[in-house]
TrEMBL record:
FAD binds at K53, G116, T146, G147, S148, D313. This is NAD(P)/FAD-dependent oxidoreductase. The keyword Transcription does not apply. Residues 7-322 form the FAD/NAD(P)-binding domain. GO terms for biological process: 2-oxoglutarate metabolic process. NAD(+) binds at G183, G184, G185, V186, V187, G188, V189, E190, G273. Its cofactor is FAD. It comes from the Bacteria.
């Protein structure tokens, strides 16, 4: 049976990004449907942000406690891995999306469970789980919010070795005695941190010279030092040539290295990149390449169309949940404005219909030990962009609040200042607890707050935030 229904907006994908754009369009009075083939809540809720942070929080809390005299002796034992995994399961709702589906219903959004694909402009076909078919048409917009997926390299033996990707790493039911992690990006570093703390003997293999390469180089240096101190075997400039698991999914796995050596483990995680989940959704029916990233304007409308939008990972602007949700709010406002035939959208740099923060002020926290947090441009990025800049550095351990936070606190801060406009272009922190410093930096960068005005934003004593005063003093001389 095929059911034909018309809506104002049809959204492909019910992760946090798809949920947010549906919420915004429905709040604007537009009838909205969402199509999802997996769990409502998407990658972030079940296999990424939420479960990974549930695994990491006990590790970071214990590490912080061990740095406080008078408390350190009480937390010297191992983590209760069973309890940590049980809390992880609770935080993801035991992979049951009933509550998320009920929320969509409560805001008046119609949910279609099944695989959705475009069939020409403004038309979506849904193949339902019960073999029913739906034909949805959109008066105003179809929004692609299908996210991204992990990519595995083409290596001999890998396909039969049943490797972990980020999904298996965040949902595993038991702690592997030995874990090899391939890749020095965010997923690799966070999962190495979590599973090492839970009792696994972790070997981290990084093909190039450092971890977290998109951040300032000092960040990776701090993180590598800490991982090694925690017992992880971190090998830089190390490539993987092949993987062998002769015993099947339950046997040990051998990772063959580019130099001819090898590492044996119980599981191997490949955290080596992501690709858009746009294959099989009918992009070719509207003249776009199947499986491609989607290029959008600042209102997140796909270039060359007046009805198709792409929000979140699929547009490749910033593969972060919070940025995808920001894009969803922008796209929702733009769709509503165009549906209401608003003659002139606010598309200036910080307008209501322009996602310019994806170009200037993207914040990210890596929940390693120590934490890493950055927003805006690094020094190298600022120089490549042609800005006349100055990098201002400060030892976070010298801030009074840091010394109270933890004995022997180690960390670093860098502020990138545009010398022509005297505004902050980027800020990077590394150290315990620095994730909570990041929003102040994001406000400074996004708001283009002049240095002379930041001087009057007084940080409370004795907090780690006092580093702002020290950075400004160093800049002013």
């Amino acid at each position: 049976m095929t059911e034909a229904v018309e809506y104002d907006v049809v959204v492909l994908g019910a992760g946090p990004v798809g949920e947010n754009v549906a919420d915004r369009t429905r709040a604007a009075g537009l009838s909205t449907a969402v199509v999802e083939s997996e769990l409502i809540g998407g990658e972030c809720s079940y296999w990424a942000c939420v479960p990974s942070k549930a695994l990491l929080r006990p590790a970071l809390a214990r590490a912080d406690a061990r740095r406080v005299p008078g408390l350190s002796g009480a937390v010297q034992g191992p983590l209760d891995a069973k309890a940590v995994l049980a809390r992880r399961d609770e935080r993801v709702g035991d992979w049951d999306d009933t509550g998320q589906a009920e929320w969509l219903d409560s805001i008046g959004v119609r949910l279609y469970r099944g695989h959705g694909r475009l069939r020409g402009p403004r038309s979506v076909v849904v193949d339902g789980a019960e073999k029913e078919h739906h034909l949805l048409t959109a008066r105003h917009a179809v929004v692609v919010a299908t996210g991204s997926r992990a990519v595995l390299p083409d290596l001999p033996g890998l396909a039969g070795a049943r490797p972990w990707t980020s999904r298996e790493a965040t949902s595993a039911r038991e702690v592997p005695a030995r874990l090899v992690v391939v890749g020095g990006g965010v997923v690799g570093v966070e999962m190495a941190t979590a599973w090492q703390a839970l009792g696994s003997r972790v070997t981290l293999l990084v093909r190039d010279g450092g971890v977290l390469p998109r951040m300032e180089s000092f960040v990776g240096e701090h993180v590598v030092d800490a991982l090694r101190e925690a017992g992880a075997d971190v090998r830089l400039n190390t490539s993987v040539a092949a993987v062998d698991r002769p015993g099947g999914s339950t046997g040990p796995v051998t990772v063959v290295l580019g130099d001819g050596g090898s590492v044996e483990a119980d599981e191997v995680l490949f955290a080596t990149g992501r690709a858009p989940r746009t294959d099989g959704i009918g992009l070719d029916s509207v003249g776009l390449a199947d499986g491609s990233w989607l290029t959008v304007d600042d209102s997140c409308r796909v270039e060359g169309t007046d009805w198709l939008y792409a929000v979140g990972d699929v547009n490749h602007r910033a593969l972060l949940t919070h940025q995808g949700k920001y894009q969803a709010r922008i796209a929702g406002a733009a769709i509503a404005a165009r549906a209401q035939q608003v003659p002139l959208l606010e598309t200036d740099r910080w307008g209501a219909h322009s996602a310019t923060a994806d170009l200037a002020a993207v914040p990210q926290v890596v929940f390693s030990d120590p934490e890493a947090a950055a927003v805006g441009l690094s020094l190298a990025e600022a120089e490549r962009a042609g800005h006349r800049v100055r990098a201002v550095d400060y030892d976070l351990g010298s801030v009074a609040g840091a010394g109270l936070y933890a004995e022997g606190y180690r960390g670093h801060a860098r502020m990138i200042v545009d010398l022509d406009r005297e505004v902050v272009l980027g800020v990077t922190f590394v150290g315990p607890g620095v994730g909570e410093l990041l929003h102040s930096a994001t406000v400074a960068v996004a708001g283009e707050v002049p240095i002379e005005r930041l001087w009057h934003a007084v940080p409370a004593f004795p907090t780690i935030s006092e580093v702002w005063l020290r950075l400004l003093e160093a800049y002013r001389g």
